[in-house]
Amino acid sequence: MYLTPNGHSLFTDNWYTSPSLSTYLFQHKTNSCGTVRVNRKHMPDLSGKIQQGQTCCMQKLQSMSSENILVVKWKDRKEVTMLTTMHEDKMIELGKKDRKTKEFIKKNLRP
To answer: Name one Pfam family in it (predicted).
Structure first.
């Protein structure tokens, strides 16, 4: 596989995504992002169940001696686990959008 250090980004599905591939690509100046199977080698234990709409964990992998790999797990309808070297460990809550106006709906907060 020939990689040029041009700062490309690679998006993969859960068949190809693994911590070892992400580490290799990052060492060759290529970012990667994709869904991952939780039973892959070198993955942290993410076996806990989460509720719908909840984010379970965001952690950097320590086992691969690489501080740049981030694992995120959340649940919309099904549990989804993502492995990325291109995103930061910050969460932004956007809320819901109005279908007609395409604007975000603000929640009514009582004092």
So the answer is: DDE_Tnp_1_7
